[in-house]
Write a structure and sequence with these properties.
single chain; 91 residues; alpha+beta; 2 domains; 3-stranded antiparallel β-sheet; 49% strand; elongated
């Protein structure tokens, strides 16, 4: 039974266009919400953002992480390069 489900899943994914596959993968990211600490470090420059009950998304072709961060009780939108960025999930 598991083999049949796997075959059906792969058949479905391969029959989808690239755009449909991207939409499916983004739906999975939407469900992965939580608390995160994002750190960008390059040389001596270090910047840290806290994400409270949110998500971090990425656009692979462009090489950036996107998220809403919280600072002093206010939320603001952040776009940071994937290179030199580190994401930690917080409890």
């Amino acid at each position: 039974m598991k083999k049949i489900l796997l075959i059906l899943l792969f058949s479905f994914l391969f029959s989808c266009s690239q755009e449909q596959q991207n939409k499916i993968s983004r739906m999975g990211v939407t469900w992965m919400e939580g608390n995160y600490k994002v750190t960008f470090a390059q040389g001596t420059h270090v910047k840290i953002w806290m994400i409270d009950d949110g998500k971090v998304t990425t656009e692979g072709d462009k090489g950036y992480y996107y998220f809403w961060a919280t600072k002093n009780g206010k939320k603001f939108y952040v776009q940071t390069p994937v290179v030199h960025s580190y994401i930690e999930e917080l409890p």
